[in-house]
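Following up on my earlier message about G3I. Here are the inputs again, as you asked, copied directly from the submission form:
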Amino acid sequence: MPAIPSLSLRRFCLTLFLASALSAAPPLRSGWVYVPGAQEMIGAGKWGCVSGLTASANSLTIQAGSGYNTITNTTGPLLQVTGDFSVLTTVSTSSSNSGSGVFLTLVGALNTGANWWEGLKRLDVGLAGNAIGVSYWTGGSGNGTGVTMPLPDGVSGTVDLEVARISNQIVVFAGGMQVGAFADPGLFAAGRVYFGFNVAPGNTLTVTSLAAAMPQGESNALSAPYLQTAARSGTGLRDAAAARGLLIGAAVDPSHFSDPGYAQALGREFNLVVAENAMKFAATEPAPHQFNFCAADQIVQYAQANGMQVRGHTLVWQQALPGWLTTGSYTPAQAADILKEHIEVVLGHYKGQLIDWDVVNEAIAYGAPYGAQPSYWLNQLGSGYVDLAFQWAHAADPNAKLFYNDTGGEGLGAKSEAVYNLVSGMVRRGVPVNGVGLQMHITASSPPAMADISTNIARYAALGLEVHITEMDVRVPVDSGGAATGANLSAQAAAYQNVLAACQANSNCTALLTWGVTDSYSWIPGNYPGFGAALLFDTKYNAKTAANSIKSQLGGQGNPPVIFTNGIVIHGGRSTVVSPGSLVDIYGSNLVGAQVTVNGKAAPAYYQSADLVVFQMPFETGTGSVLVQVKSAAGASLSNAITVEAAAPSILTYGDNWGVVQNQDFSVNSATNCAAAGSYLTAYLI
Ligand code: G3I
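Thanks, got it. Here's what our run produced:
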């Protein structure tokens, strides 16, 4: 390549200066283009997960103490290369000791053995004294091969470097000029380039641009686990949800993006994500005033690449707090300052990017009598911390939607009442709260009644608040291999469908999120021994019955409930004659989300699936003919007349002939299975 005359070089530098206002990347050589997505490789999510450096939005700073500080970014983006490529960077050394060097490090193969150099294929190119220093290692020895190249005139503390593989040569450019080349010993033969830097003892390196390029027509690509885009089937849960104007989401841990099935299932099925842990206090402020958004940024980047929305979780909670805070000796005033700053910085970082925030999480105790949950914040700031947190959050981002999120108060009952009282009090006091998160960590065997969830959501609508089902999972008993029975998975599916139906029945319920994507990664087995399989996708990312029930519920909202002819019968029997207080079965279709009424008054339902509702005939219903009707968001069934008559005590029958009287060993008593003399019997009565 001909040398570039010095006049052109000056013009080149001027162009770079002007261009740097728009983009930090050094200029491309003629015929070369950026690898898609690789024009700017310093920002969000790319370097913050790497230790040994300080990452800001526009620069990286790497210092070395008494030893070399060598960094390879294995969690951020890497380059997949098949043909020619180059890496462009702007590096500066502020150190007077630059004699020993600051380097761009490109790794073609990671270390595979006990010694740092085993298997390692690495190329360092940088500023070393008054020259461009180059070293490379090919995996067989710790002794690198060194090459020294001249520094162009006028280039000193800051340099635009370009390191290229062109055919079988490694070619180095500095300040826009080719300064040397040597035969490539196959450093990048594996098709991968990890980015890194190496700083010699006592030196400081500042990196203000990093980009990758290739000759036009090459097909190199930038990849990172969190940059994957999922193949969209058009038939995912998110497609059905979007058609209903609903967000369907999942809690995410970005470390799972490298599991190939995970990133695909997430982006294919969901249109909303929430960080399972990455946005909590301990993760985002690991040291006082030092914030790290790396993992959280990776989630946001993934969501943006996949057309998904993001919820923020959570700013104020008594769990997931860093040790420096909980073991530090801060006065209440200092603790207030810490929390305020935390809220301001975290909200500020994501301003305009998230749909809402769980500002305060689980401020009500987990058990009766459901007072304030003991916490660091309660101790330090008193019960006013909840209001304060919302006020600080609103001041930090007046456009952010602010939610209160809690567990165990999804239906009706004492916890639900306590949450409602807290939130309605906030509304009354003018505290800027926009919504309530109902977590919904429930069991398949005793989920909250659908009608109760719906009533609860409706009373938040009356306060002008939005509701999200924020953390749903439905745990079931599992064997030692993590497998659940088909019956339990069906019950789980009904629970998922009922909760979604309750949400759909109320227009203020706008999102349902599950607390994870796959049964492979869930907090349930670790926290509820013997339980698991709580999510919508199995360990192989297959849709479970529950996912299908969610999908059919999303698709089925348009169909009003139907009661089958003679479909209203006494529970477990066939008689259409019932008594006050007796359980009654309604067989039909589209029954999920349905409320039963008797003579226009709501009756309590105990079980609900798409084709069966079990409700109790209210004791106060008179005798005679009554009208039973089933209503859902999609409409109402026809009214069906049944007869209610005063109960003469009777033994319950089940089907035609069984389930009525049990012997002491719980077997059904019959002519051929008599009770032993002197044994106890159990009779089921109405
Ligand atoms: O990442 C560290 C790892 O480096 C370390 O070796 C390991 C040893 O314990 O811990 C790992 O961190 C754990 C983290 O989950 C990631 O797995 C924490 O110890 C553990 O406490 C943390 O638990 C999370 C929990 O919140 C507390 O923050 C769960 O994953 C997460 O599912 C759970 O989520 C909460 C919601 O935020 C609020 N509602 C209830 C829900 C379930 O508890």
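One observation from looking it over: The two ends are 97 Å apart (CA to CA). Hope that helps, and feel free to reply on this thread.
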